[in-house]
Amino acid sequence: MKVLVCISNVPDTTTKVKFVDESKLDTNGIQWVINPWDELALTRALEMKEDASNGIEAVTVAHVGLAAAEPTIRKALAIGADNAIRVNVDPKDAYEVASQLAQVVKAENFEIVLCGIESADHNGSTVGGMLAEFLECPSVTCVSSLKMEGGKSVITREIDGGKEIVSVPTPFVAVVQKGIAKEPRIAAMRGIMAARTKPIKVAEPQAVASLTEVKKYEMPKPRAACKFVDAENAGELIALLQNEAKVL
Amino acid sequence: MDNRKILNSGEFLIDTLEAKDVFIPEEFNEEQLMIAKSAQDFLEAEVYPNLDNLDKGDRELMSATLKKSGDLGLMGVALPEEYGGFGQNFITQMLLAEKVGAGYSFSVAFMAHCGIGTLPIAYYGNDFQRQKYVTKLATGEFIGAYCLTEPGAGSDANSGKTNAKLSEDGKHYIINGQKMWITNAGFADVETVFAKIDNDRILSAFIVEKAMPGVTVAPDEHKMGIKGSSTAQIFYNDVKVPVENLIGERGEGFRIALSILHMGRIKLGANVIGAMKKAINDSVKYANERKQFGVLISTFGAIKYKIAQQAIKTFTAESAVYRLSQDIDDLLNKNLAKGMDKGRATIEALAHYAVEAAILKVYGSEALDYVVDEAVQIHGGMGYSAEVAVERGYRDSRINRIFEGTNEINRLIVADTTIKRAQKNEFDLFGHADKVYAEMNSVSCGKKDGETYFESKRRYLSNFKKATLLIIKAVSKHFNFKLVPEQEVMNNISEMIMEIYEAESLALRVEKLDNMGKKDEIYRDILNVYLYDLADVIKKSAKDAINSLENAEESLNLTTAIDKLTTVDAVNVKFARRRIADRMIEANGYIL
Ligand SMILES: Cc1cc2nc3c(=O)[nH]c(=O)nc-3n(C[C@H](O)[C@H](O)[C@H](O)COP(=O)(O)OP(=O)(O)OC[C@H]3O[C@@H](n4cnc5c(N)ncnc54)[C@H](O)[C@@H]3O)c2cc1C
Asked: Looking at the DSSP assignment, which residues form a beta bridge with residue B174?
């Protein structure tokens, strides 16, 4: 059985995001990392591979993006993925990402496909569902646990107030969230050395229409400073509430 | 870095490099950064959540944490592949040391294991010893310690009384004695013990296993800081050590001890960078949260001054650390090309740069003490509370000025070794010094019209070097090279030498960044402030030395020359520091 983990390359979650002309991310000084949910998916895939009874022969990671993302891909290889595929295109939206990934899955017959529930950059939460649709296979969302038992999937979904446990036939897409693995793994020295020689296959993109046009990005308004009013000045407080906050 | 000009140890005082000749931290490759990230992730996952428990002196927890870092392979970074390591170059080792350096007492335990605990065997051991011990030290299966210091033998390390006698059947050395202040004593499996065979004058080095009968470890010392690292006395009572556990030759122990300390010093120089960056991050975050007088304290000029100074010292120390790392890599590779064994090749490279190693140690440990001190100050009363990270950072920092050779001993090494090597004609210091001395009365600051920015900075540095040569010449002449009793004056010289190495490393880095198109004004602000301050440091050290000579006529001429050589253009340091601090404040942490 072959497992594919789809990874996106996102700014480190502590990044102070800035935009150029409200239309482009200012990439200056940004540290790029594997999207945290994808990293957990990868961790789970590796755990499953380590249990020989699951019969997983290889864990592959796939990324849709330009060569600048290769350090992030190699990080995934250092953590333990066996090989990687990069579709060489700068995708415009989730539809395009999912279309390109679908080609990858079809070409290599992956039976388990894992996606993170959302990416820490655009928070789209749509790639996994669309990908399953293109593949005409089941997709399971909000997955917090994934096991294979006797060749059958046992998947736990987080639902309002409880859990739902389902099984779907392979191939399937599981959109995973917190709980799928305890902690992301730290790349070990051996893995970092091995990543040097693990293959990253570069696939040419297929033509896909972009359905989305980003008009602009807006930053949240800075929080207004707190105003202090002396206890004796109730009048000032009332005036502020009436004229500035306009709540009275 | 092919075709780069490489200077021998100490030569920076009489020669210059171009920016392209130095390695700067902005040039780390992807793999190095990945290793660094793993170390940082390890601290976050395994060390930071456990600091309180570690600091309660939980030997088992520290030992288990060390072993986990071994599982990740971090302990094998510096070791050759044939002994279970990963054979990484020196720069990578230093980057790892920097990252681990943010790990409080874990850092001390880890560095002691990987450095002084492992390297005597890795560098000087024979193949049998390396196979038996280094392969296990590389993974953390064994933890290592280095036992040199004794109650009566600290800075004077060769004066130890621990004794080794060959057994009658010639199969064992019987070791008796006492060691103290031994890092990792509580859980180390393997110790390098320095002892004198029979009535030898010089130490020999032995591999002793903790499990050997007669080895007793005392309870841990109660310490000011790095409380999580185990430090204890070890007693040896008729310990039978197989003769094959002698490291190197009989009487080679002192040399081994010293070269391992050179390594320890350099690594300490990298270690403190990590600790400084951590303290700055903590400082800036707090300054960006704490309000007084209705505003954030990060808006106050006095606080900005502290943040700027913390950043300037850190950036400068870092520039010197990686500059030297590349030099060591290059010399090491040259030694390897000559067919030397990897261990010996490394040792020779380290010993060659002994002066620079001592500089990194002294400058780095004192910079860290400044940074953590101001970190506490920025936190006000909160900085005095054991609840905040900077309180621990403050206590943990202090040891760095004491171990791996006290800063007093290292300051002496800087001036003394430089002058001794020059006397042996290893480099032409006195040729240059004689020239400056002869021309002392006609010297000028040399300012030219139309100088570029970097030309003027290079001129300052060249003048500061001349000032240093002038003082070295005057002092050597005055005392007729009998300099051992003249520690105060030697310290003045050391101060100048150290500061020049650091400042020049900074200047070369800023120029290289500029050439690489990274024309951020913060770099020039740092360099401007540093050199402006340095002029006064050089002047003060020089004058202190001059006035110690009690030679009125020469004093006047020397002082006049020093004044000219330390003349620099004015800098609005208030605004420059504010700009530096504002960038940290905006980013909420150390950004360089
Ligand atoms: C936490 C900790 C961990 C340590 N870990 C180890 C370890 O793992 N292995 C090990 O072998 N040792 C270790 N040490 C010992 C350490 O290296 C010594 O403490 C250090 O070398 C100083 O020796 P001392 O304490 O005897 O001080 P002393 O040598 O007595 O020094 C006292 C003072 O005199 C000054 N002084 C001494 N000689 C001179 C001189 N010639 N000129 C001018 N000033 C001088 C010193 O600088 C210092 O200020 C450790 C120490 C500590 C505190």
From this structure: B165, B240
Tens of pLDDT, residue by residue over B449-482, are 999 999 999 999 999 999 999 999 999 999 999 9
A2-215 CATH, one of 3.40.920.10, 1.10.10.10, 3.30.1370.110, 3.40.50.620: 3.40.50.620
Q: Which residues of B9-32 are buried (b: 16+ CB within 10 A; e: fewer)?
A: bbbbbbebbebebbbbbeebeebb
Q: Is B82 a catalytic residue?
A: no
Per residue in A156-182, pLDDT tens?
999 999 999 999 999 999 999 999 999
Contacts of A122 (CB under 8 A, 6+ apart): A94
Closest CA to A135 of A155, A151, A113, A166: A113
- Give the nearest ligand 1 atom to B405 CA: 21
**Among the partner residues A183, A187, A228, nearest to B38 by beta-carbon distance:** A187
Rounded CA separation B577/B375 (Å): 17
Q: Flag whether the ipTM exceeds 0.90.
A: yes
pLDDT of residue A105: 92
Percent helix, strand, coil in chain B, to 5, is 60, 10, 30
Measured between alpha carbons, how far apart are the two ends of chain B, in Å?
A: 23
Q: How many CB atoms lie within 10 A of CB B426?
A: 16
What is residue B477's three-state secondary structure?
helix
- Alpha-carbon Rg of chain B, whole angstroms? 24
In this structure, the residue with its CA closest to atom 4 of ligand 1 is B181
Q: How far apart are the first and last CA of chain A?
A: 66
Question: CB distance A189–B587 less than 8 Å?
Answer: no
Tell if the pTM clears 0.90, that is, is over it: yes
Q: In sequence order, what DSSP letters do the residues of A122-168 get, joined into one string?
A: T----HHHHHHHHHTS-EEEEEEEEEEETTEEEEEEEETTEEEEE--
**Cβ burial A17-45 (10 Å sphere, 16+ → b, else e):** eeeeeeeeeeeeeeebbbbbbbbbbbbbb
Q: Say yes or no: CB of residue B118 within 6 Å of ligand 1.
A: no
Strands (E), B93-133: none
Q: Which two tokens stand for residue B460?
A: 């300052």
Q: Name the pairing type of β-strands A2-6 and A112-116.
A: parallel
Q: Does ligand 1 have an atom closer than 6 angstroms to the CB of B406?
A: yes
pLDDT at A226 over 70: yes
CA atoms within 13 A on the CB side of B13: 33
Could you tell me if B72 lies within 8 Å of chain A, comparing CB atoms?
A: yes
C-alpha of residue B276 to centroid of ligand 1, in Å: 23
Task: Please tell me which residue of chain B has the smallest CA distance to A195.
Answer: B31
- Strands A172-176, A139-149: pairing is parallel
CB–CB contact A189 B31 (8 Å): no
* Beta carbons of B77 and A186 less than 8 Å apart: no
Number of A/B CB contacts below 8 angstroms equals 43
Number of C-beta neighbours around residue B427 at 10 A: 20
Cross-strand pairs, B153: B150
Give me B245's structure tokens: 């556990």
C-alpha to C-alpha distance for B316 and B510, rounded to whole angstroms:
10
Q: Which residues pair with A115 in a beta bridge?
A: A175
Q: 3-state class of B3 per DSSP? A: coil
The burial class, CB within 10 Å (0-12 / 13-18 / 19+), for A217 is middle
**Measuring CA to CA, how many Å separate B111 from each of B71, B75, B77, B273?**
16, 9, 12, 14
Q: What are the structural domain ranges in chain A? A: 2-215
> Does the beta-carbon distance from A78 to B34 stay under 8 Å?
yes
**What is the spatial distance between Cα B459 and Cα B451, in angstroms, rounded to a whole number?**
10
Alpha-carbon distances, residue B430 vs A123, B450, B564 (angstroms): 67, 32, 21
